Amino acid sequence: MKINEFYEPSKDQETLRSEEDTRKSKLTLKELNKLRKVREISRAEEVEHTKFVKVMYKAGGEEPAL
User: Fold this and answer.
1) pLDDT for 11-63, tens place per residue?
2) Are 57 and 49 in contact (CB under 8 A)?
3) What residue ranges do the domains of the chain occupy?
4) CA–CA separation, 34 and 42 (whole Å)
């Protein structure tokens, strides 16, 4: 049995919200994909920054003592 067998586009209605409605809106797939991409970019930047910090604060070579 497939889900499409019972699907009727004419009965498909997005819930309308009034101004008094305080519930959160549902996230769409488009919004979820955008959030996923933002999170991936953020993680990539964090990895790049971590590599930079390791190079910046790496223990230097043998320096002569004063």
Assistant:
1) 766 666 777 878 888 888 999 999 999 999 999 999 999 999 999 998 876 66
2) no
3) 26-57
4) 12
